[in-house]
Fold this sequence. Notes:
The complex is a heterodimer of chains A (about 300) and B (about 290).
Chain A: E1 6-12, H1 15-31, E2 35-40, H2 42-52, E3 60-63, H3 64-67, H4 73-83, E4 90-94, H5 103-119, E5 125-132, H6 137-146, E6 149-152, E7 155-158, H7 165-171, E8 183-187, H8 192-206, H9 211-231, E9 236-243, E10 246-253, H10 277-284, E11 287-293, E12 296-304
Parallel strand pairs in A: 1-5, 1-6, 2-3, 2-4, 4-5
Antiparallel strand pairs in A: 6-7, 8-9, 9-10, 10-12, 11-12
Helix pairs in contact in A: 1-2, 5-6, 5-7, 8-9, 9-10
Chain B: E1 20-25, H1 28-44, E2 48-52, H2 55-64, H3 71-77, E3 80-83, H4 85-89, H5 97-113, E4 119-124, H6 128-132, H7 135-152, E5 155-161, H8 167-175, E6 179-180, E7 190-195, E8 200-207, H9 212-225, E9 228-239, H10 241-252, E10 259-263, H11 267-276, E11 283-285
Parallel strand pairs in B: 1-5, 1-6, 2-3, 2-4, 4-5, 8-9, 9-10, 10-11
Antiparallel strand pairs in B: 7-8
Helix pairs in contact in B: 1-2, 5-7, 9-10
Amino acid sequence: MSPSATHTSLLYASDRDYATEAGGFLRDGLERGHRTLVMAPPSRTEVLRSELGGDADEVTFVDDSIAYAPQWNVYRVLLDFAAAAPGTRSCVIAEQGSGRRTAAELVDYRRIESAINLVFAEHPVDLLCPYDATLPSDLLDIAMRTHVGVRRGGSVADNPGFRDPLAVLTELSAVAVPPAASTTLDCSHPSDVALVRRSVRARGAEIGLDTEVVADVALALTEVLTNALLHGAPPARVHLYEEDGMWVCHVQDGGGSPLDLLAGVVPPAQPADHGYGLWLARQLVSAVDVGSGPTGTHVRLHTRRS
Amino acid sequence: MILGTHRAPSDLGSLEPGTHLCALEQGLARLDRVAATFVAHGLAAGDQVLYIASDREVGELLRVLPGHLDAGQAVGTGQLVTSSFDDAYGSSPPDDLGTVADGFRAAAGLARKKGFPGLRVAARMDPLADLLGSFDAVVEWERMASGLQRQLGVSSVCLYDVGGLAEWQGAALAAEHDGLAPDRDVPAIASFLAVDEPWGLRVTGEVDVSNRELLHRMVASRAAVTPRVRLDLGGMTFADVGTVAGLRSVAAALPDSGYLVLAQVPAVVRRILDATGLGHDKLRLEP
Lengths: 306, 287
């Protein structure tokens, strides 16, 4: 058995289709003694349970409202599942509900599906990502570009639409310029971080966000701003604005070091004093853009307005 | 114009250990205020603070220290120590300055033995000229103190009433110090106060990149005395991941019998622990 990962998409046209393909995938895994995990909306889970019957008891089910809240949490669920039995091969189904997504969340969705090919490459895991064939074309494009294989009729074929993950991630790291109307806060000294935090809390309350959401944004922003102060080049600035229904906290610094496209996508492998900031931010807000260019390094934290 | 104001007042929030500051102010009330500001920052940073002053001056300090610093408890735990001028410097001229320096050195060592990361001293200096016999001897003392404090990592503010000094004397004193102590400063965003029973400390306010090192060295200093340390986090309103990671490192380095107890853990710390997996057997959360 190959120790490396596989990443396969499934475009299903009906519940029957889904049950046969996804159910078959899990049943194959169970027969081979693999561990099985399903992250999916309740409607999909029901189909799988009825298809698998008693075998469903051997499958770990995680509701998509937990696994994808926020989206990057899916990596954490995967890592935790793998850590529970290191070395044992896993069969994993990963599917988000078809709810409303903002533009920023769609971009992160593509990053997650693309980076998974690199981050989990050496993990003994077979990942199957089912997509409802009636989904909007922007979502189906993610399915087509980021999966190495396509499952159809019980077997996996090469996906001719697959694109090099590094090329995809590089394209998605283009710098977005803060709009002219944004509020900009300067941050040159460690003691300024508390002042920025205060402003962000006040602004978050003003636009009517829940206290817990504002607390998460304040923590995420603190981490990203601290990285900018410790590892970036001055000046560090925070721009606050709204865009496409999202509240954006945009941290910009002078840049300098080349951008690591996979920075903070997973946590440090061993407990450490550093290296958690960006990972933590991705666990706290709706979407996180990281980009760099002549104007420096830019990290944008997107928070849903509702 | 106050003498020595060619230098900007120092920022007490980021004071390097071993910084030798002075205050050259007109009148006792202004000196009281500089002393209170310096002592408040020292206590908040978790250091032991020694105030060398008269009973009236000590009484005034205890009256004006902000409530969250709990002056009464700080005196009880020995985090705030007060001493009369005579007790600190003696009532007769010392044979040589080395004797006084030895006392200084002993005080710094004692602060560490009592579980404090460092010692800060605020001293009313006006009686010093009489004790040492001349103004020149005071300048000589201050010069020696600069080197000694840098070596020991002891920061201080030397409080002089310029009402009793000629202009050139003020300038001569200012020249022997690293800077001026501010009479007011932005309050620290967090305070780390010693607690004896159970052994540990109480954290209030926000901890981030600007002050987490202070917290970590305070916890390490308490743990060096007794490796079972309880952190009362009931008043902590913010922490970043570096704060939590640092506490984990302190806990992980403790001897087998040691541990850190985190009590009244705020939601933000639980959130960080949950998202990062930075837990440790020796980092125990009180439910």
